[in-house]
Amino acid sequence: MTTQPLPDDRPTSGATATASLHRLTLPGPMLQRGFWLYVWRVQTPIGERLYVGRTGDSSSPRATAPYTRMGQHLGFSKAANSLRRLLTEAGVEPENCDQFDLSSYGPIFPEIGMSKEQLRADQMLLHMPVRDKMAALEKRLRDALVAAGYPVLNVVHSKKQCDAAQWDAVRNAFTEHFPNLGRFDP
Fold this sequence. Notes:
About 30% of the residues lie in helices and about 15% in strands. By secondary structure, it is α+β, with helices and mostly antiparallel strands. A 3-stranded antiparallel sheet has the order 2-1-3, with helices on one face.
């Protein structure tokens, strides 16, 4: 004699027992394209980890919104998911992290949009100096966070110098979320 489960005893196809409701609040200005700096604060099983980034591509004359980078960082495209990759290399599966918090500051500069009359090469000539200024600010922010004792996952390479007034504005903005940052200036 065999028994058949009753219809109510069968699990719903594809359902998981761990489903729960989550919420993400996104400020509208984070949708604005342009040159932004951002810091991810990730609560991982091995402690807090930070990631410092910027918008403003090196390979195209585009400067996207922090919101766009948010999804790319945690996605599966190897060309864009550096946060996921660095967490995994540190032995942390992103899905096992308690929380991801994204602080972004900008746009510091507007996106230099392409016009139909402009060649891509000409647009890159306008984009690259701004991109380089942002890379210098990104490196300084990353280095200042490390000097202040925050555990930063990534390394930022730039030999460019950043503008002192712009750096002061960046440091002041991020000090709200990273109080030790205000005490160090590498």
